[in-house]
Structures are given as structure tokens and as C-alpha cells.
Automatic annotation (TrEMBL):
Gene3D superfamilies: Cytochrome P450
Protein name: Cytochrome P450
Cofactor(s) needed by this chain: heme
Region annotation (Disordered) ranges: 424-443
GO molecular function, one term: iron ion binding
Superkingdom: Eukaryota
Transmembrane segments: 107-124
Entry-linked PROSITE patterns: CYTOCHROME_P450 (PS00086)
Keywords, sorted A to Z: Heme, Iron, Membrane, Metal-binding, Monooxygenase, Oxidoreductase, Transmembrane, Transmembrane helix
Length: 526
């Protein structure tokens, strides 16, 4: 009996040894695999000073060409950074091996800025799954149909306001995007003028737009530096994002807290309620609490998820609308063609004026406009480097080793300029997507502006339908023209973008001219 037990132990020990040896060999073999290529680095600092702080997406794209690889590796203070320069690489890793790339790095600068429990920055965890589920379910293609009446109403309200106050067009479009997400998230209707939430949205956009590349500042690599006092932080340009984060903290906290505080009492009392994400989830929470049933999501979770809608959804949609308008000014022929299509679909009277305003029912017939919007997202991806993912365990890809815990950037800018897929990629050309069966070039629809894998933007359908309805409404009723100088010559808008999480276009002038009395009447009838 004792012998049998001894044999078993010996067999088990042998098995452990064999498995251990195999694992060791595999680890050693992997160690021998090279890291993806990249430029030379500096001792200790690695590539910290080699990668430009301003618009690194351009340089990453250039390095991809120089090193003949769509996967690049950088090391910053010992941390691996992997940049994916092609849709194929992003699909292979972030989609097909999505479970291993669903994490995020720690965003220390964004923590200093005061981002609460926001899905965008949550690490891979049960809490991430809970937030992802809550948000994803609310913004599927089908679920988004329920928000169309709000989008149509707000688009018409904005267009009408632009006709009476064309010099405020930029602010009124901000108001449109803020109004949609606040109504959907919290059931809050914003004021016609000087709305405090619009001001908060602007402050937040300045905070994130100028906050540097996410997860790539010195403080992100050495979290203890977050406690450095401002006078010391000012001594190095590498620490500038820290002061910026402290300065802008209150604006971010305000946009997290103010809408919730404004609605909390109505949800609790059940009076003056508007349908919204907050009402659904917080209402359910209160019902469960009253019935003694457990709640999966805490109040902080619901508050964070509702906040994510307004924070991640407002400025992003506004910025996309701005880039679209910028291109309609730079390419009047595109503007004319998009308008022609809209007028053909909604019908015109004997003067060529619209019979009605566009609606979502028209969308299937407005292929050119949809292509203009898609081209807008390709031509200038809102997050040129996306929001970084992080790998959980080590991977091998194309013979390269991708270490566990790497920060992974999907370089949407490089993907948008990939000459294997896009002819003259710098040119804004909505025709590029016309299928070959219709005599077009059939270039692939943009892949990348909304990210990849398990972190892909849950708000993409809402965002694109918002851009669609506002652009259709504006084009049907107004001409969008460049500003003129004192000699009456057109001033073409300057093409420049902020640096950071989102690329926001620099302010530019646009004259909105109502096309006819009938257009004015259609809008004022609302
Ligand atoms: C045109 C407008 C928009 C663009 C270009 C955009 C783009 C992006 C990108 C690039 C990401 C990162 C994806 C990744 O990590 O792979 C993202 C994430 C996210 N977006 Fe959007 N977005 C837009 C509008 C919206 C809207 C309207 C909402 C609100 C419903 C929203 C909510 C979110 C959230 C919550 C995340 C975090 C997802 C996660 O980390 O799991 N976005 N978005």
C-alpha cells in the first residue's frame, strides 16, 4: 500500500518536472523572440524623450514606414508601449485576441483631473463588465432608435437658433450635442441661452483636449509624482500635464456631479420625471432597495455610467460635426452634392425649396451624406491614437513578443492614411466608398475611429445618427459659406487640431445663410 502511494508521488513529481521544463522552455523560447521594431532609445528613460509629445501619431506613422512594420515597440521608463499602425494588426490583436487586450493602463493624469468611475478609464475588472453591460445595452443600433425623436427635435431647435443668431453657430452646435446626451443620460433639457452645462462641456473639452496623450506622461509612469507641488512640477516640461490636470479638475468633477444632483430628487420622489438612463437605472436601484432586493450596481456606478454618456458623448459628437463643416467649407462641391441629394429625397416645390425637413426615415436614401460623415471620421479620427488598451498576458504576433502589461495604442491616424486601402488618403473624398459594383473605387469604410475589440466605443451609433440628423437639417435649409475679408474675398478656414485624447479643430469662421423663406418657415414651425 505504502509502495503504491510512493509510486504515485514519484509519478506526480515527474509530471510536475516535465510540465515545469516545458513551461520553462517555452518561456525561454519566447524570451528569444524579438520585440517589435522601433527607433533607438536612451538609457534609463527609453523612448520618453524620443517620442514627440505633440501629435505623436504622425511620427508613429512615419516610423512604421521606416521600419517596414505595422507593429512598433517603445519602452518608456521600463514600460512596454506597442503601437498598431494598421487595421489588420488591430483586428488580429484587439478583436481576435480581445480578452487579452481588454484592459486599460492606469491613467494617473486623468485620475488627478478627477475622472470618477468612468467606463473609458476602468481597468479590466467585474466593475468594468458591469459598466460595459449597462452602457452597451442602452446604445445598440436598435436601442438608439428610441433616441431619434430627441435628436430630431434638438437638431431642428439648433438649426432654428442658428438662423436667428448665425454668429453663434459654433456655440449652438455645442448646445445641440450637449442637449442630446444630457436628455438621454439624465432627462435634463438645457436652456436656450447661456446654459451652464454647455459651459461645463467646453471646460471639460479643454481639459481633455489639452491633457497630453493619455497614459503617456511621466506622471502616468511614476504615479508618485502626482504629489509633487506645482512649483516643482513647473521645472520640467515633462511634468506640465500635472499642473494642467490640477487646474482643470473642478470642471470635470462638476460635469460628473451637477446633472446627477439636478435630477436626484425627482427620481427619488417620482415627480417631474423624464425618461433617461439615470431614471431607468437609479429608479430600478431605489425599487430594489425598497423591496429589500440586492442591487448589482451601486449609486456610484450608476452615477459614473450616466456621467460617461454626457462626458464621452457630447464633445466627441460636436467635434465630429465641426470637422464635417470644416470640410464642407473647404470643398463646396461636396456640400452642393450632399444638398442636392437631400433635396431630391425630401422633395422640392417649384422654386426648388424643400417640402419638408429631413428625418431618419430618409437616411437609407442619403448614401452620399452618410459617406461624407464616414469620410469625416476617417480624414481626422477624433482620437488619433485611440484610448490605449493594455495587454494582460504575453502574446506573440508576427514573430514578435508583446510583453504582458504593454500599453497598446491603435493608431487610427496611420490606419486612415494607409495607402494600401486609400488612394490620396489626405484628400477628403466621400466618393472613395462608392462600391465597385456601382462604378466606384470601393475603398473600405473607416475602421478605427471608434476603436476596437471589447473597448470599442459603445456610443458610435448614437454619435453617427446625431451627426447625420444635424448635418441633413443644416444642409437642407442653409448654405454654409466661408467668411470673407474686408475686400470680400473668401477666407478659407485654417486646418489645425488640438493635441491629446481628442483632436478638436481650432475655431474657424462659417457663414450660415438660410436658403429661403420656406426653409425659415419649416424650422420656425417647430
Ligand atoms: C463621433 C463621436 C465619437 C467618437 C469618434 C468616439 C470614439 C471613441 C473611441 C476611439 C473610444 C475608445 C475605443 C477603444 O478603446 O478601443 C471610445 C470609447 C468610449 N466611448 Fe466613444 N466616441 C464618440 C461618441 C460617443 C458617444 C455619443 C458616447 C455615449 C454614449 C460614447 C461613449 C464612449 C464610452 C463610454 C467609451 C469607453 C468604452 C470602454 O472603455 O469600454 N462615445 N469612443
Amino acid at each position: 500500500m505504502a509502495l503504491v502511494t510512493q509510486d504515485r508521488y514519484l509519478a506526480l513529481a515527474a509530471l510536475v518536472l516535465v510540465v515545469g521544463a516545458l513551461v520553462y522552455r517555452r518561456v525561454q523560447q519566447r524570451r528569444k523572440l524579438p520585440l517589435p521594431p522601433g527607433p533607438p532609445s536612451e538609457p534609463l528613460l527609453g523612448h520618453l524623450r524620443v517620442v514627440p509629445a505633440d501629435h505623436p501619431e504622425f511620427q508613429y506613422t512615419q516610423w512604421g514606414k521606416e521600419y517596414g512594420s505595422d507593429v512598433l515597440h517603445f519602452s518608456m521608463l521600463g514600460r512596454s508601449i506597442v503601437v498598431l499602425n494598421s487595421v489588420e494588426a488591430a483586428r488580429d490583436l484587439l478583436d481576435k485576441r480581445g480578452a487579452n487586450f481588454a484592459d486599460r493602463p492606469r491613467f494617473v493624469i486623468f485620475e488627478v483631473m478627477g475622472w470618477g468611475i468612468t467606463l473609458t478609464f476602468l481597468r479590466w475588472s467585474p466593475r468594468f463588465k458591469l459598466h460595459r453591460k449597462m452602457l452597451q445595452q442602452s446604445f445598440t443600433q436598435t436601442a438608439c432608435k428610441a433616441y431619434r425623436p430627441v435628436q430630431v427635435e434638438e437638431a431642428r431647435r439648433a438649426a432654428k437658433a442658428i438662423i436667428s443668431s448665425p454668429q453663434n453657430w459654433e456655440m449652438l452646435l455645442r448646445q445641440f450635442s450637449t442637449a442630446v446626451v444630457l436628455r438621454i443620460g439624465f432627462g435634463i433639457k438645457i436652456q436656450e441661452k447661456d446654459d451652464p452645462y454647455v459651459k461645463m462641456a467646453i471646460d471639460v473639452e479643454e481639459a481633455t483636449g489639452e491633457g497630453g496623450v493619455p497614459a503617456a506622461t511621466l506622471v502616468d509612469f511614476y504615479p508618485l509624482l502626482r504629489y509633487l507641488p506645482n512649483p516643482l512640477a513647473r521645472l520640467s516640461s515633462l511634468l506640465l500635464p500635472l499642473e494642467h490636470a490640477r487646474r482643470t479638475k473642478s470642471s470635470i468633477q462638476q460635469l460628473h456631479n451637477a446633472p446627477w444632483a439636478a435630477v436626484e430628487d425627482s427620481v427619488r420622489s417620482g415627480k417631474n420625471l423624464q425618461a433617461s438612463f439615470m431614471n431607468t437605472h437609479f429608479g430600478r436601484y431605489l425599487e430594489n432597495e425598497a423591496a429589500g432586493r440586492p442591487n448589482q450596481a451601486s449609486i456610484a456606478d450608476i452615477k459614473g455610467a450616466a456621467g460617461a454618456i454626457s462626458i464621452a458623448g457630447g464633445n466627441t459628437t460636436w467635434s465630429t460635426i465641426m470637422v464635417c463643416i470644416l470640410n464642407l467649407l473647404l470643398h463646396p462641391e461636396v456640400q452642393a452634392k450632399a444638398r442636392e441629394e437631400i433635396l431630391r429625397v425630401i422633395g422640392t416645390d417649384e422654386n426648388g425649396d424643400p417640402l419638408r425637413l429631413p428625418t431618419f426615415q430618409d437616411r437609407p436614401a442619403l448614401k452620399y451624406l452618410d459617406n461624407v460623415i464616414l469620410e469625416t471620421t476617417r480624414w481626422m479620427p477624433l482620437s488619433p491614437l485611440g484610448v490605449p488598451h493594455a495587454s494582460i498576458t504575453e502574446e506573440v504576433y508576427k514573430g514578435y513578443r508583446i510583453p504582458a502589461g504593454s500599453v497598446v495604442y491603435a493608431n487610427a491616424w496611420a490606419m486612415s492614411r494607409d495607402e494600401r486601402h486609400y488612394s490620396n488618403p489626405d484628400t477628403f473624398d466621400p466618393e472613395r466608398y462608392v462600391p465597385t459594383s456601382e462604378g466606384g473605387r470601393g475603398e473600405p469604410l473607416p475602421d478605427g475611429p471608434f476603436g476596437f475589440g471589447r473597448r470599442v466605443c459603445p456610443g458610435q451609433y448614437l454619435a453617427l445618427s446625431g451627426v447625420f440628423i444635424i448635418m441633413a437639417t443644416l444642409l437642407a435649409t442653409m448654405d454654409l459659406k466661408c467668411e470673407t475679408d474686408e475686400k470680400g474675398c473668401e477666407v478659407k478656414p485654417k486646418v489645425a487640431f488640438s493635441n491629446g485624447l481628442s483632436a478638436v479643430p481650432e475655431s474657424f469662421g462659417c457663414r450660415f445663410e438660410v436658403r429661403s423663406e420656406r426653409s425659415r418657415m419649416l424650422l420656425s414651425g417647430m
